[in-house]
Amino acid sequence: MEQRERSRTKWITYATLLISFWTCAKGQFRYSVNEEVQEGTVVGNIAKDLGLDKATLKERGVRIVYGSTEPPFTVNQHDGFLFVNRKIDREEICDRSKVCVIDLKTVLQNPLEIHHVSVEILDVNDHAPSFPENKSTMVISESALPGAKFLLKNAHDADSGLLSVQQYKLSPNEHFRLEVKDRGEDRKTPNLVLEKSLDRESVKSHVLLLTALDGGKPAKSGNMTIIVNVSDVNDNPPVFSQESYSVFLKENSPIGTTVIQINATDLDEGSNGEVVYSFGKDVDPRVRDVFNLNPVTGIIYVAGALDFEETARLEIDIEASDKGAVAMKTDKTIIIIIIDVNDNEPEIEVTSFSHALPEDSKPGTTVALISVTDSDSGLNGKVICSINKDLPFLLTPSLQKNMYSLVTKHMLDREQQSQYNIIIFAKDAGEPSLSSEKNIEIIISDVNDNRPVFSQSPYSLYIPENNSPGEKIFS
Ligand SMILES: *[C@@H]1O[C@H](CO)[C@@H](O)[C@H](O)[C@H]1NC(C)=O
Ligand SMILES: *[C@@H]1O[C@H](CO)[C@@H](O)[C@H](O)[C@H]1NC(C)=O
Ligand SMILES: *[C@@H]1O[C@H](CO)[C@@H](O)[C@H](O)[C@H]1NC(C)=O
Ligand SMILES: *[C@@H]1O[C@H](CO)[C@@H](O)[C@H](O)[C@H]1NC(C)=O
């Protein structure tokens, strides 16, 4: 119990004015007692302080008057001790005023005597700081710059002075620190200060614990969980799932064939993370005719006829773009390699041809030059030429690729066969193979290679005698 001596001031009250001529002593006595002490706790001794004889206390009916309610203190009529009558809550009586004093009147009768007794109720740390809510959610944009401040709700503590909220603490977090503004009169305002930029794509939500501490010993605390939701900013471009895309495509792929599905993802949220695909700006219009790109799925389809012989390799620039207010874009080149299919038959061309071949031509005489071409590549374009083996002609490959010469195998005889119809057959090595054929007509021209021949040799004939001169004998 702490006794506080204050300067003795004479009090003039309504009661003392009325009855001043009766009272013989008007003093002010001041006691102090902690709030919340147990009933029966002694505060002081009235008899001693007023200089009254203990014996007269009961006689003169000493009592405590405190408004119309039951007083918080009573006096023992035998020994004059003033003691606590009921539990006293300082905050209930005085709220947050710095000094809390209860004024009592000690009344004695015969003659009526009133003494003022003040009891100061001393604060004890019977309240903990508390926040208006246990949990508070706030949203901070990931574009917020370090140094940005965010006001937090303050905690209240019903105790006064040093026993009220004295400090705030924040759970350790690399992104935030706490700044407390002291507004005087026990009003301290906590502010959350951004220390390091937020990145929604790495941490969507931060959970912080704000602790308010009072100045008691030991200090009481109150906590509030602060949830910081990080709101999105379009700060990530779409990223393709593959470093490079290449695909093989048969040249005879029908319209509607899926060529490839490309896929790009964007870490941002909502429309900032929605990806659409399109052809790059510089894409050849012919590519746009032959391929379709689904902007949503990223599937590239065949939309027209492909021709390996025309284009064997295509590079298509694709753009993935998000739907942010200021869209972010990423380019990628798709390589399409067209695979040849055996769709071209060999073409036979007779480049030189002597129409009529003298029958006495030496073996090996060139009759015609034949060239074959096949637009396909590889085996599909590898051509083998042949003619019927029974003919007196040979097809000999020349040094030049795909060139043949048609030569005579041996001497010919117009008188035996005056004309040949040669079928040149060309076949590629594709699977299945394609072939073509061409007819060449060769006419054998006559040479004077035959002596007149008598039908009989020798001729033997009979001539009748007595012929007239000049008469035919024989033919
Ligand atoms: C705050 O939390 C405490 C302890 O978890 C709980 O008893 C109390 O009801 C909560 N108050 C509110 C307003 O949620
Ligand atoms: C507030 O949080 C701190 C730190 O976790 C803890 O020591 C303290 O007991 C908490 N106070 C209350 C009233 O829950
Ligand atoms: C914060 O984020 C959580 C989880 O994503 C969500 O449930 C809550 O509604 C958000 N709060 C606010 C205020 O945005
Ligand atoms: C794209 O890739 C992402 C991440 O790998 C995946 O979740 C998503 O399903 C893919 N989309 C398609 C259409 O394949």
TrEMBL record:
Chief subcellular location: membrane
Bilayer topology term: Single-pass type I membrane protein
PROSITE patterns on file: CADHERIN_1, CADHERIN_2
An example molecular function term from Gene Ontology annotations: calcium ion binding
InterPro entries cross-referenced by the UniProt entry: Cadherin-like_dom, Cadherin-like_sf, Cadherin_CS, Cadherin_N, Protocadherin/Cadherin-CA
A GO CC annotation given for this chain: plasma membrane
Glycoprotein in keyword set: yes
Coiled-coil segments: none
Subcellular location: Cell membrane
Cadherin domain residues: 25-131, 132-240, 241-348, 349-454
Gene Ontology biological-process annotations: anatomical structure morphogenesis; homophilic cell adhesion via plasma membrane adhesion molecules
Signal peptide: 1-27
Keyword annotations: Calcium, Cell adhesion, Cell membrane, Glycoprotein, Membrane, Repeat, Signal, Transmembrane, Transmembrane helix
Chain's role: Potential calcium-dependent cell-adhesion protein. May be involved in the establishment and maintenance of specific neuronal connections in the brain.
Protein name as annotated: Protocadherin alpha-13
Gene transcribed to yield this protein: LOC106516890
